[in-house]
Amino acid sequence: MKGEGPPKPSSTPEPRLKAEPLRPRSPEGDSPNGEPPLKDIGRRLEGRRRELGLSVEQVQAETKIRRRYLEALEAGREDLIPGEVYVKGFLRFYANFLGLDGSDLVAEYSRRKEAQTPASPTENEGAGRKRHRAAGPGGLLKAGRDGGDGRVGRLVILAAVILVLVALSALWYAWRGGEPAAGDQGGVAGTPPASAGSGVRTPGNEAVPAQPSPRLPSWAKTGESDRSVSYVVYGAPFTVGIEVVAEQCWVRVTADGELALERTLQAGAVGEWAAKTSVVIVLGRPQLVRVTLNGEPLGPAGSRDQPRTLDFRFAQPTGEGAGTGGESPGRTGSGGI
């Protein structure tokens, strides 16, 4: 209408938008923005180390974890650490050293890693088929009818092929007259019979097949008692590794005659030593420690809660064995390796 001015602004103030709070971390442990599973955990480790005023060199000296692995943990670069077992072991030990809960961080890392594991191609293909069948009215019913007809057709073809094979087999046997062909007598087809003077025959004059040559072992157990166990290793250099799986254990390691470690290790601690001649490990509580030799698991270092010595020595192989390692014939003991 004429004579009316512009509308007067309302005296009621407009409400202000409030800033949304930061989204809390998902209880499932999903990594934000699809970053690597260890990235956020590594930032927390680095932040805690800086709060304590510690350098990477100081942490390396106290934990005996190499600097490059500590830096890989803080950077979230699990690909720079040799294997997920070492990632979890270093993470638990480093977190406990910093006063954090190592077990909780390992569990969070596992959840994040599982959450980022892609679905298998078979699952994706199945999901795609379901979506395709559900698209459009009556699509699911039509797909079901087509699938049934296809299955029936395949069964008919399969039955026809089987019948043809049976008929051909019967004709072949009848043509041969039921007698073995020349060259089949005296053993398996393609295997010549044993010579007359060999003296190695089986019922029916069949030749014994040749046995494969046994492989040289890579190690052997030479002695064992409640207090000690000894091995010889055929090949140098070789590596011996340990992992403290529970509580804590006093450890002393001597490699090639030089003291490499002597301290109490907490659960999750992992160590590996390379040597050319010998590795001697003394454990206060061997039942809490798992041992590897050249990456091959040997099991618990013992079964009793008493000190035990593990002695690994290089030796030249003196003969052939059956397998890559194991106990020497006639050796028994109560140890756990």
What does this molecule look like?
This protein is of the alpha+beta class and 337 residues long. Among the domains are: 84 residues, lambda repressor-like DNA-binding domains (434 Repressor (Amino-terminal Domain), Orthogonal Bundle); 96 residues, no CATH class. 33% of the residues lie in helices and 19% in strands. The protein contains 7 helices and 10 strands. It starts with 38 loop residues before the first helix and ends in a 23-residue tail after the last strand. The C terminus is likely disordered.
End-to-end gap? 100 Å
What does the radius of gyration come to? 35 Å
Number of helices: 7
Query: How would you describe the shape?
Result: flat
Elements, N to C (H/E): HHHHHHHEEEEEEEEEE
Question: What composes the largest sheet?
Answer: 6 strands, mixed
Low-pLDDT ranges: 14-30, 130-147, 180-200, 320-324, 327-337
Estimated share of beta-strand residues: 15-25%
Record field, number of beta strands: 10
| Fraction of residues in H or I helices | 25-40%
Q: Class by helix and strand content? A: alpha+beta
Mean pLDDT equals 75
Distinctive features:
alpha+beta; 434 Repressor (Amino-terminal Domain); 6-stranded mixed β-sheet; 4-stranded antiparallel β-sheet; flat; disordered C terminus
Outline the fold blueprint.
Blueprint: H1 39-51, H2 56-63, H3 67-75, H4 84-97, H5 102-115, H6 121-134, H7 139-176, E1 219-224, E2 228-233, E3 238-244, E4 248-255, E5 258-266, E6 270-275, E7 278-283, E8 289-293, E9 296-300, E10 308-314
Parallel strand pairs: 2-10
Antiparallel strand pairs: 1-2, 3-6, 3-8, 4-5, 4-7, 7-10, 8-9
Helix pairs in contact: 1-3, 4-5, 6-7
